[in-house]
Write a structure and sequence with these properties.
The protein has about 210 residues and is an all-alpha fold. It has helices at about 1-15, 20-25, 30-35, 40-65, 80-100, 105-135, 140-170, 170-205.
């Protein structure tokens, strides 16, 4: 939940203040055109959803083969590395710097590219996490998913209220760079889960899935 929230924040940092950042910077006053700027992020999410599901399944199979048939649910989280460590933080950080320092059609085009890459990266992280939650507690997957979604959106709703004041206070570039750092921290939490997930599950069994019932 913490990892996915920290990664997802980057998307809202770009999208929520778009009319006040990209819109003002590039002279976009038409609401329809500003709304259309949301589309690259959505298209990126569609692309990321298509790629991440297959990629995480491939990663799980390969690591299971390396262990000679031993299943470890944390292997699915290994599919998040490209999105969480590179695509998300680089896209949000680059967007802030581009908006601040590059004007004209070139700056707008680069921002649109950042929006698309951010969408791909976000879903490349969130989808494996959602699947991991189901993997570890098949018998209570609905409860796990509900708790995960509710907690995640609670964090996002609180952070979203701070985005515009942050942009006004410290500027677009620093706000986006902070979001990029938070995304990297989120990926760090995922890496800790990959490394110590088996020990954490062993410390308190709440009905976790096993190789026999997975």
């Amino acid at each position: 939940m913490f990892a996915s929230s920290l990664v997802l924040i980057s998307s809202y940092v770009i999208l929520v203040p778009m009319a006040y950042t990209i819109g003002i910077r590039y002279g976009i006053t038409n609401e329809a055109i500003i709304g259309a700027c949301f589309l690259p992020n959505g298209l990126g999410s569609i692309t990321g959803a298509l790629i991440s599901g297959r990629l995480s399944d491939i990663v799980v199979r390969r690591w299971r083969e390396k262990r000679r048939g031993v299943w470890c649910p944390e292997d699915r989280l290994r599919a998040t590395w490209i999105g969480g460590l590179f695509m998300v933080p680089l896209s949000i950080g680059a967007s802030g710097l581009i908006t601040t320092y590059i004007g004209g059609s070139i700056g707008l085009a680069l921002n649109i590219l950042c929006l698309y890459v951010n969408g791909v990266g976000i879903d490349s992280v969130l989808n494996p996490i959602s699947s991991y939650n189901v993997d570890v507690v098949h018998s209570r997957s609905a409860e796990a998913t509900a708790a995960y979604m509710a907690s995640r959106w609670l964090v996002i709703s609180a952070v979203t209220a701070l985005v515009i004041p942050s942009v006004e206070r410290i500027g677009v570039a620093w706000t986006d760079i902070i979001a990029a750092i938070l995304a990297v921290i989120g990926q760090g939490i995922i890496s800790l889960t990959i490394r110590y997930g088996d020990r954490m599950r062993a410390s308190m069994d709440v009905g976790f899935s096993t190789m026999e019932n997975n």
